[in-house]
Write a structure and sequence with these properties.
Length: 121
């Protein structure tokens, strides 16, 4: 919010004071915003991987810690597994086990979810 206010011509002091006031009143909450945004992306079937969600949230100015908390609160085992299957379907990855594992790890999928996928094959 501070960055957006500065971009619109407000001074640093004013932008920081407004942002602080909104946070104190509970009207500005990065984690809540991130959770709502992630749920929206999932409803639109546009959530491809945990890493892509984190990157998109960072581009929107959400702190890394808040983004991680939001993802962890939303992605239960089944939701993450479903996301992993959709990711693999979309990416049409080859059947090379080690390269798929590395790609899934790089995309932020948990080791448990990755192992579950390979155990089900």
């Amino acid at each position: 919010m501070t960055v957006k206010l500065k971009q619109r011509g407000f001074g640093s002091d004013v932008a920081e004071e407004v942002t602080s006031g909104l946070i104190e009143r509970g009207l500005l909450d990065d984690k809540r915003y991130a959770e709502l945004w992630i749920r929206s992306r999932m409803a639109q079937r546009k959530a491809h991987s945990p890493r892509k969600l984190l990157v998109s949230l960072a581009k929107r100015g959400v702190e890394r810690h808040s983004s991680h908390e939001a993802i962890n609160s939303i992605l239960d085992e089944e939701t993450e597994y479903t996301m992993l299957l959709k990711y693999l379907e979309k990416m049409e990855l080859s059947e090379e086990g080690s390269s798929i594992r590395a790609d899934l790890k790089n995309e932020g999928f948990s080791p448990d979810t990755i192992n579950r996928f390979f155990e089900s094959k």
